[in-house]
Fold each of these.
Amino acid sequence: MRTILVTGGAGFIGSNYVHYVLEQHPDYRVVVLDKLTYAGNLDNLRDLAGDPRLEFHQGDICDQTTVERLAQGCWAIVNFAAESHVDRSLMDPGDFIRTDIYGVYVLLQAVRKFGVERFVQISTDEVYGSVPHGSSREDDRLAPRNPYSASKAGGELQARAFYESYGVPVLITRSSNNIGPYQYPEKVVPLFITNAIDDQPLPIYGRGTAVRDYIYVKDHCAAIDLVLHQGTPGEAYNVGGGNEVNTVQLATAILDLLGKPHDLMRFVEDRPGHDQRYSLDCSKIQALGWRRQYDFPQALELTVRWYVENQWWWRKLKSGEYLRYYQEQYGRRLAAAQR
Ligand code: NAD
Ligand code: DAU
């Protein structure tokens, strides 16, 4: 029986990946290490409670003792643990540098010490920086432009260095914007859906022209699993949905799916240094056999339906710390907003 340590497995993509592994590999054991920051949520794993193949530990990937205890005997580590929201990194980058760079180093040391056979570092298309034309390939220059993406680039460069220097079997995935169940409602898609359900304004940064490539989270999980099992150590793999959409198009599609008026859109002060476009060339992972299963309309419809049907999950998150963050991020912006 293979054991996989999934760090950050109580977050959005990590918890979807835990579900994916237990469905696809009935003979695998999954150990989750998660600090349960504001973004970590045991409700994301609630339906798996009682499954003897799943073990949960609350802890920090920066804590060497905890990491070493859990890494021993694992076949692989898949690292999702990170501070993940660009807007929060602009407010306060410290935790991003700690978890997204130093935390990766602690994991890599454990992989090296205990001979773990595979280490997958979940990275992001943001490491390429803003891409006005064409699509990024894996050997393009990394040019991150905000504290989050710079930290993610730092983490994956450490991983790459451990491969080159010590032969640590590292694999890197760089995905575009995931959508689907269990995404914390600070990210644009769940923020817009949950605000629209409650007839609250949708804050659109700048003129809403920034382009993102949205991918359904299950497609990303399938790609990660493929890279884990069939990827070449030392290599990075782009994972995109092929669904490039700007923020106005996104907001319009969400409002239409919910039958809400377009005048809920508010144009607010832009994100500083806002990357205007990401775009990935995914031919490398396609050569391994991966194809996306969900196009943008399917992915968005499934996501909207999940938030409509699972209000128990997100309503309680929109309190306390969330409201403080919301006020700091949007209070002044919305007060000065244009329709
Ligand atoms: P998330 O914020 O929903 O989840 C992050 C998880 O990591 C949370 O459960 C949190 O509690 C945990 N965590 C944070 N700091 C930790 C620490 N020091 N030790 C242990 N656990 C810690 O993030 P997500 O959107 O699921 O992203 C997961 C990973 O995928 C991240 O590495 C992110 O950079 C990357 N990524 C995300 C996207 C996206 O669209 N969401 C796209 C590409 C890559
Ligand atoms: O591209 C992959 C990245 O996608 C991941 O690495 C990050 O972890 C993830 O958070 C996401 O980053 P983005 O900055 O692209 O996602 P976000 O949902 O914050 O914003 C998506 C787009 O929507 C972006 O152009 C900014 C815009 N936006 C966002 C918010 C939160 C708005 O216009 N208004 C908003 O309120």
Note: The chain has a mean pLDDT of 98.
Amino acid sequence: MKKVGFIGLGLMGAPMAANVARAGYPLTVYNRTPSKAEALVALGVRAVESPRLVAEASDVVITMLSDARAVKEGAFGEEGLVRGAHPGLVVINMSTISPEETRQIADQFATYQISMLDAPVMGSIGPATSGTLEILVGGDETVFQENKELLATMGKNTYYLGPQGTGAQLKLSMNLIVAAELMCLSEAMVMAAKAGLDLSQVGQIISASNIASNLIARKINNIINADFQPAFSLKNMQKDTSLILQSANSLGVALPAVSVIHALFTAAKERGYGEQDSSAIYCVLAELAGLSC
Ligand code: NAP
């Protein structure tokens, strides 16, 4: 079996790496905060002190980091994975970054004879844990075919979309829908709360109705229970609405709703909700309405 490396053991990376290990791949991992590797070490995974050491031990390295800055640091920094890479190494970036940054990073990898796949995911901690993510892949189709089996340990569906950056492009379109759903749900719930309706009952009725998506049915409980423990952090959603607007600008596409949604996520982050779940956007609207959250 291919020797696999995994860099970034956050909310998503840790359960994804665990699925790779359970499938039997020899796995070497690195995380900036070493304690997050402990549960994997208990599964027989080897934890090392740098991305360079991950690359030295691996045929394929998966990155699941917050943003492009972290991906570039992990790739090209002083102890970055290119320092330990051998020609033919494959890097699969599953972090959400922009299509433009994806292409730049892939071009830079190519100078080290490293191939990259662009493979962001849809689905949160639940699907990451059960290995049922949707994986959106761009890059060389042969490299994709060679790594399809590995990706299948983390995802129920893996879609090949085309050249480098196409996975990232679709990811942004899909997260635009997620951001808009969260915003609409929060506005609807604030209006109901201000009118004095019983939010538990409102939640049950909305969840049972034909307007409920899987996402709404889950996030409505966060609002009702005022429990914003992160599954997808608000700061990462704010990062994504920013990437959506950047991409729309470079494509010459007007996305008026996203401009407003991004402004609200930015305000929420500034008010200290960044580490909470993205559904905590509700709290900012509640505060504006004079309600507690
Ligand atoms: P997370 O829990 O915040 O984890 C982020 C990871 O990146 C951690 O391992 C963190 O290390 C590492 N990191 C951040 N900045 C770094 C830096 N400068 N240098 C080195 N390591 C750094 O985020 P997540 O929820 O797992 O998300 C990871 C990616 O997947 C993001 O791009 C996110 O947008 C995307 N995504 C998330 C979800 C979701 O539902 N959560 C769903 C789909 C896609 P430390 O542990 O040391 O902080």
Note: DSSP finds 13 helices and nine strands in the chain.
